[in-house]
Amino acid sequence: MAAAEFDIPKLKDDIEIPKLREGVMAHAKTFPAAKAVQDFMGYPHELGEDWKERAIDKMGELLGKYRSMKVFLDACVHCGACTDKCHYYLGTSDPKNMPVARQDLMRQVYRRYFTTAGKLFPKLVGAKDLTKDILNDWYSYYYQCSECRRCSVFCPYGIDTAEITMAGREILNHVGMGQKYSNEILSKVHKIGNNLGLPGPALEDTLEGLEEDIEADTGVAVKLPLDVKGVEVLLVTPSADFFSEPHVESLIGYAKVFHAAGISWTLSTHASEAGNFGLFNGNYESMRKVAMRIRDAALELGVKRIVVGECGHAWRVAYSFWNTLTGIGYGGDDPFSIEMQKQLDPTYPQPQHICELTNDLIKSGKIKVDPSLNDDLVVTFHDSCNVARASRMGTEPGGQFIIPRELIKSVVNNFHDMADETIGESTFCCGGGGGLLTDDLMEVRVKGAMPRATALNNVVKEHQVNFMAMICAICKAQFTKVLPKYGFNMSMVGGVHQLVSKAIKLD
Amino acid sequence: MGLSTVTMIYAGMFYIAALVLVVGLVYKIVDYSRTPVPLKIPTTPAPTTRSGVIYRMAKEVVVFESLFKANKWIWVFGWLFHFGLLLVLARHLRYFTEPVWFWVGIVQPFGKYASIMMVIGMAGLLARRFLVDRVRYISTPSDYLMLVLLIAIGLSGMLMTFVVHTDIVALKAFFLGLMYLDVQPLPQDLTLLVHLALVALLMVIFPISKLLHAPGLFFSPTRNQVDNPREHRHIAAWAARLDQKN
Ligand code: HEM
Ligand code: HEM
Ligand code: SF4
Ligand code: SF4
């Protein structure tokens, strides 16, 4: 890794809005995808002669397929309300990381080729011909957006920069400028079934090892079943849960919950990945292809419920898109979705988040917990962006904030939230979401984590918080890597089910 | 009595401007509504029912709720401007209705002073474009000019209201004449001619500029979608075709 040295931001008492420093992040470029990967994904691997036409054609195609893109590119009034809302702007002070400026990278081209005003008076409305410089700006700055949607909360028209970023990446892919990290992961999941490229036998070994660990630890034979047909629940979880720390602690937590509640369940080799990097490139077909693995596994195994583990973007895709993409959900009246839906147990939401499941079990007394087992911890909760602003839990709007907190408070005695403007719908991204969780973007990741680190630092100082719980595999990986740069111990980071795992009573 | 050249020019100008405005807006609105929305993307927490969405949208339109969360200065200036504009336009309806609608009569005195709100709001927004480095960075020439245009319309109107009055009766006859295809002479005060020329320009610009934010807001999927993806299968026509291949 040849990433250059960079200064780590100093944490202040408040998250300050920096003065603009133009171009300071233009050098941050994610590694490009190599030929083999681009070939596999069906994209070119270098700019051809006709790159400009390809880019404009693709843009036109996307404008015809996605109303969001068309409305968002037209409607922005440049009011500036979003300019100080992005963690990457706050952390880097590069003006092109302001949400509206990130959109304008595309809007300038849209106006030039697709609008009357931009065709007639380009200078007046800031319209520009597409050039290689602009394409390079896209490549830099569309990979400095974690698609976290914080900007869309504050925009008076709900303009979601993430939609523009996704379109930008899709166009870049089609002219031959793919990202190594995301596209390699997508090809792994298409070939093997999970983002890590962990094959079936390896998965089986890992799970057996974990069963032994749990038994040694608790004296109870908690199982982690794989590919078992006819059970009630299929658990789909990010593959990082199988072997990364601290992720695996949450996996152990889920297994204990199923065990204690007496719910029969299984994992699946074919669907050994809840994550769906198709989302990050805004490619519907690719996202659908990844999601179809879960439908196929569910049909094959004959399960009645589908439950999703701790992962932010995976929960967005599962909650918001699975029904659309794969028919996992309710209300479909076409043969494709009926085939899936008639198999599912209508007394449960489909898909269901593991926090919804565990919280219900604790509240109804079906499993018992002892929160004092977590008395060494003072806990706070990091709302992951995709859960917070692109999904829900439970039946009421905002359940995605309430349910995880209820669950945490039932298994720990000491809990303090971070400042209001940094949680809930205003939560700050960890800095590593949306396809940025790669070492070649370390500078972007560290700087983008500044707002969250500031908020965390304040509860550490005020309430001696020593554990930040979260429900996202990317957040966990990102924070264990970047928080130490701000002087925090990486053991502060962990899953909600890691807390459940410690407090749950197994007999 | 023959009609003056100025009257003929203004009559033609308003017919063209009205045509551009209506055709342009209808085209855009039809285009927006025909463009599919393949995925559920409301910014959550979002309402779980249609009536909830109507309430959310009403809050955005009437009190600029998201903007209020974002930035109090833009909100104050923006809201003064738009609410002022609304009252001013309501007051203007008296030029186009005979007899004047009851509520338009009531609005008259408010509309008069709302012009002050409107211009103060716009002055504040314009000042931000010069003073706040982030807003200066994102502003294009058209962003400044749009505000200058609207301020010029406002000030020329206020000049007539408060200083150099024009012949309102004749003006009304002119516009009613336009509406009934029977052109009447237009009073020829300079202020009025400037006011009207700028208004015609605004009408032409409307459907090809960021003023599309007004219809656009209603089509914004992050604001107008119901949060019920688990209960209802949402599918676009082009995407449904993919299901058949399985
Ligand atoms: C449904 C009706 C409308 C809604 C909900 C609406 C809402 C908004 C909002 C929230 C803003 C951003 C805040 C601000 O800068 O004020 C804005 C900006 C703006 N609106 Fe509207 N608007 C509407 C109609 C109109 C109309 C009819 C006009 C003009 C004739 C207009 C002209 C403008 C202009 C010029 C700006 C940009 C101000 C600036 O430069 O900062 N709006 N609008
Ligand atoms: C064809 C359309 C329009 C006509 C015929 C028109 C005509 C007039 C007239 C005659 C006045 C003077 C009223 C008086 O002396 O009491 C006036 C005032 C004014 N106009 Fe217009 N105007 C038009 C469109 C607009 C538009 C689109 C705007 C705003 C964007 C506007 C903003 C104003 C303002 C702020 C005033 C001063 C306050 C008031 O008296 O309401 N006008 N207009
Ligand atoms: S989606 Fe998030 S990362 Fe992207 S511009 Fe908006 S606030 Fe920044
Ligand atoms: S808040 Fe919305 S309308 Fe305002 S500048 Fe940002 S994207 Fe544009």
Shape of chain A: globular
Largest sheet of chain B: none
**What is the CA-atom radius of gyration of chain B, in angstroms?**
22 Å
Order of helices and strands of chain A: HHHHHHHHHHHHEHEHEHHEHEHHHHEHEH
In CATH, what is the homologous superfamily of chain B?
Transmembrane di-heme cytochromes, Chain C
Keywords (chain A): 4Fe-4S, Electron transport, Iron, Iron-sulfur, Metal-binding, Transport
Pfam families (chain A): CCG, Fer4_8
Organism (chain A): Thiobacillus denitrificans
Protein name (chain A): Reductase
What attributes characterize this protein structure?
heterodimer, A: 507 residues, mainly alpha, Fumarate Reductase Iron-sulfur Protein, Chain B, domain 2, 3 domains, 4-stranded parallel beta sheet, 3-stranded parallel beta sheet, 23 helices, 7 strands, globular, B: 246 residues, Fumarate Reductase Cytochrome B subunit, 12 helices, 0% strand, binds protoporphyrin IX containing FE, binds iron/sulfur cluster, Reductase (chain A), 4Fe4S_Fe-S-bd (chain A), Helical_ferredxn (chain A), transport (chain A)
Report on the structure:
- The complex is a heterodimer of chains A (507) and B (246).
- Chain A has three domains: 35-178, Fumarate Reductase Iron-sulfur Protein, Chain B, domain 2 (Orthogonal Bundle), CATH 1.10.1060; 192-359, no CATH class; 368-503.
- Chain A is globular and about 75 Å long.
- In chain A, helix 22 links the parallel strand 6 and strand 7 (493-495).
- Chain A is mainly alpha-helical and 507 residues long.
- Chain A has helices at 35-41, 51-65, 67-75, 87-92, 99-114, 116-120, 122-125, 132-141, 150-154, 161-175, 180-191, 200-218, 247-261, 284-301, 312-326, 335-341, 354-363, 385-390, 399-411, 442-448, 450-463, 473-482, 496-503; strands at residues 233-236, 265-266, 305-308, 352-353, 379-381, 467-470, 493-495.
- Chain B has 246 residues and is mainly α.
- Chain B has one domain (5-245): Fumarate Reductase Cytochrome B subunit.
- In chain B, helix 1 (5-34) runs parallel beside helix 9 and helix 5 (102-131) crosses helix 7.
- The interface between A and B is large, with 82 and 69 residues.
- The structure holds protoporphyrin IX containing FE (HEM) (2 copies) and iron/sulfur cluster (2 copies).
- One iron/sulfur cluster (SF4) binds next to helix 5 of chain A.
